[in-house]
User: Which sequence fits this backbone?
């Protein structure tokens, strides 16, 4: 049986506006502390599981496959990689048209199994291809804060 | 196997909020901008519209004969659509209450500096079925004199200030 | 249905602000639980995760986020969530997986990192209230617990100074818990003199804001008997929700819990809970709440729990020790992880592995409960050896 009342005119339909008023501070964690401190130094680090033969980038405190502890196994991985896949974005995250479309890619850091999602720069969309070698372009050292934006983007390796 | 001090040692690293804010460890901040427009639906839509008129409306269940407030389109106990709309009184009795010294964010109110404690209460509305309470504030009363069963009446905002909201009632105040 | 046993357990330290990410905390607890029963991740068939609102950790789809730290890489995985009741729903959820015959082993992981919500997680609670009829009045959970405590006190004529004994007892018990966040020797006067949050609730009536994780390992009978000589059995499960129109309930009594407890007791064949249960971990986010839940679990007659408390009935060496762990009031309250910590305490007590917290008399049957959602969900688990 359906509910017995119906709206007769749409002007009766009301709504209530509200928001979820929250703020967050996230610590980057034990593995994140290593990763982002090294980014300030212009380096990228991963974590190596010798049992599973996996190098995670960003590093983790544990191997998700075998649960081995990896905190003694952080390794520097260089700042170069290849484009694993990519896209060109015409809208911002909340659906607003962008003036300049941006290229977003998953970068597989060389010699690792880890993928970083980041922007591509200094390249035209038409020139980007899967497998293209790229390297990280860091902000000026004085501007680095220890977060993922300390890397401005990845650019093709000349 | 017993869980010992030695086992839990090092599982978590203790910090203070200040240490995080001051950057002893790295952190990221985020303020989500989550805004919503929730449809009122017919029952709450009418409830709010009647509050704007300075009236409190409930709905009756034809099966259990309860007069339900806030009104709802189905009786949650009998699981049938509710029947007629019924105006109830803007008076009631205090079922239970608090004397709040912190706000909704758990921030301290300046009680010593003269801030009024928050006296939120469940009020059983006259004309609705027994136990039918709504949440609202109490006013014009010494917080420490509030008592169970105290008779109260709604204090409405002036008609021109009402917006169709539960806050069209400013608070409930004691009556004889 | 197959019998299901708890065979391992692990938990982190509980702190107000931890450096670790939520998934790093989950890993620490899960790793410890696996180590405790000498199992490897490859021995695990499936994983369940309990974690309360996404709004605490500030991670949308927190279950998915926590999966790898919970040991769920490429395994069947499900997250469940009933607010504060989550931690005791966790073993029930794991029990389904194993009792059904579908899986032989299951990791049950619970995590909460409340400190991410800044400046205080209380703000997250505003949005659990009805958005049109209640939110505009700016209620928060502390008020709601205070409003319930008031109804409970005035109905039974209980005194605040007597209820305060719960804080005294639990914080003292927590002195012996290795993960405890706020253990201590406090007096009734300390509780009464602590800052008023929302009368009748003072600062020391409340459990703290916490970060932490906990994990137990479940196994079907044939596996459990290979792992341990002392499996602890999940013999009863119950859970229920009362009406979400919470202002229309009489808040003096937790009907949601009685319904859940009756279901669990029936399954466990318990007819006289106050005689057959030897150790209990009633959910104690607030002092009065332990007593409210002792009555709802039918371990004390309605209106009599305070008298029994005052007489020492619920002390660690009393007739029916309650919260021997130290409870949420002493060990801390990382919501879901706190509920699972209570299950873990009953498990350790029945196993005789609670160390300095061990209750006397070789207990064979225990119960734990948790409570949550919009203060109307009850979750109950009965364990036996």
Assistant:
């Amino acid at each position: 049986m359906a509910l017995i009342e119906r709206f007769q005119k749409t002007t009766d339909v009301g709504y209530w506006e509200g928001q979820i008023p929250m703020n967050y501070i996230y610590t980057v964690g034990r593995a994140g502390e290593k990763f982002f401190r090294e980014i300030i130094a212009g380096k990228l680090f991963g974590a190596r599981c010798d049992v599973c033969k996996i190098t995670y980038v960003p590093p983790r405190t544990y191997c998700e496959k075998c649960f081995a502890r990896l905190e003694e196994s952080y390794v520097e991985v260089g700042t170069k990689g290849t484009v694993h896949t990519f896209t060109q974005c015409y809208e911002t995250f909340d659906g607003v048209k962008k003036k300049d479309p941006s290229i977003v890619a998953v970068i597989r850091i060389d010699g690792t199994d880890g993928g970083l999602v980041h922007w591509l720069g200094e390249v035209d969309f038409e020139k980007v291809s899967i497998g293209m070698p790229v390297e990280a372009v860091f902000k000026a050292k004085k501007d680095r804060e220890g977060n993922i934006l300390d890397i401005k983007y990845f650019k093709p390796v000349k | 196997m017993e869980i010992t001090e030695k086992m839990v040692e090092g599982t978590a690293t203790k910090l203070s909020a200040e240490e995080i804010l001051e950057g002893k460890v790295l952190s990221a901040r985020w303020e989500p901008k989550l805004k919503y427009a929730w449809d009122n639906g017919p029952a709450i839509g009418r409830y709010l519209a009647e509050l704007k008129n300075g009236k409190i409306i409930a709905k009756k269940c034809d099966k259990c004969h309860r007069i339900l407030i806030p009104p709802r389109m189905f009786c949650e106990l009998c699981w049938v659509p509710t029947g007629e709309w019924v105006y109830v009184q803007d008076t009631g009795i205090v079922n239970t209450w608090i004397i709040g010294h912190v706000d909704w964010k758990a921030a301290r109110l300046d009680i010593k500096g003269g801030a009024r404690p928050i006296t939120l209460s469940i009020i059983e509305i006259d004309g609705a079925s027994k136990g039918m309470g709504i949440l609202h504030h109490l006013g014009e009363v010494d917080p420490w004199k509030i008592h169970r069963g105290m008779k109260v009446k709604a204090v409405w905002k002036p008609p021109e200030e009402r917006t169709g909201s539960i806050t069209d009632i400013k608070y409930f105040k004691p009556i004889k | 249905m197959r019998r299901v046993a708890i065979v391992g357990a692990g938990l982190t330290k509980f702190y107000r602000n931890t450096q670790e990410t939520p998934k790093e905390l989950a890993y620490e607890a899960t790793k410890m639980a696996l180590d405790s029963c000498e199992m490897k991740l490859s021995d695990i068939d499936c994983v369940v995760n309990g974690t309360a609102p996404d709004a605490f950790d500030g991670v949308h789809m927190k279950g998915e986020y926590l999966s790898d730290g919970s040991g769920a890489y490429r395994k069947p995985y499900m997250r469940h969530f009933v607010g504060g009741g989550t931690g005791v729903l966790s073993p029930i959820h794991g029990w389904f997986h194993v009792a059904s015959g579908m899986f032989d082993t299951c990791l049950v992981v619970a995590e909460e990192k409340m400190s991410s919500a800044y400046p205080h997680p209380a703000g997250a609670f505003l949005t659990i209230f009805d958005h049109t009829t209640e939110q505009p009045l700016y209620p928060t959970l502390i008020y709601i617990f205070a409003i319930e405590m008031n109804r409970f006190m005035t109905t039974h004529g209980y005194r605040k100074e007597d209820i305060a004994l719960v804080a005294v007892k639990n914080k003292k018990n927590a002195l012996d818990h290795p993960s405890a966040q706020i253990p201590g020797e406090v007096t009734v006067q300390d509780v009464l003199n602590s800052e008023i949050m929302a009368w009748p609730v003072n600062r020391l009536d409340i459990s703290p804001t916490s970060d932490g994780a906990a994990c137990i390992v479940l196994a079907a009978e044939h596996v459990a008997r290979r792992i341990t000589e002392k499996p602890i059995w999940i013999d009863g499960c119950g859970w229920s929700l009362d009406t979400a129109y919470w202002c229309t309930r009489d808040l003096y009594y937790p009907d949601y819990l009685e319904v859940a407890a009756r279901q669990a007791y029936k399954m466990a064949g318990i007819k006289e809970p106050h005689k057959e249960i030897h150790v209990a971990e009633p959910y104690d986010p607030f002092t009065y709440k332990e007593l409210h839940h002792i009555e709802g679990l039918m371990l004390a007659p309605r209106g009599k729990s305070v008298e029994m408390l005052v007489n020492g009935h619920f002390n660690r060496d009393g007739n029916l020790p309650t919260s021997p762990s130290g409870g949420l009031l002493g060990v801390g309250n990382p919501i879901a992880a706190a509920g699972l910590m209570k299950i873990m305490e009953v498990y350790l007590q029945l196993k005789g592995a609670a160390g300095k917290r061990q209750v006397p008399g070789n207990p064979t049957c225990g119960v734990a409960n948790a409570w949550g959602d919009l203060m109307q969900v009850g979750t109950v688990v009965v364990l036996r050896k």
